[in-house]
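Write out the 3D structure for:
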Amino acid sequence: MFKAFYETLQVPIFVIDTNNKIVFANSSVEELLGHSAKTLMSVRLVKFVHKDFQVSVQAACDVVFDEGVGAEQKLSNLTFVKKSGRRVKVDLCIKHFRFNKEPCAVITLHDLSELVKYQDLKIHYQISLLIVFYLYQ
């Protein structure tokens, strides 16, 4: 049931087991990272995390599973690695839950590249306004 719900969301979502292996990934994960859902199954989550952030992500997952139902960890400005080898900046939220009495964690990713594009566009717009203002004084 949760799979059908998560598939409708436009947010990249993983579900991992207590061994941090992926048991579900929605289509938004495939769009973000370029890996098909099939190739992600049973692979440890940290495989897709840049080496500089693997320890932090692993530790956050461990905390969530140690604390149990309702536990949550958030990490900001991490780097995941796409199938192409390109890097993508994300914020990550891990939340513990139980499915069929088994502990799991749902992980949502927020792609920061769109935010960076927006900020760059905003800066460009502000500079353009300053130039126009300067020219017409």
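Strands lie at 13-16, 22-25, 72-81, 87-99, 102-111.
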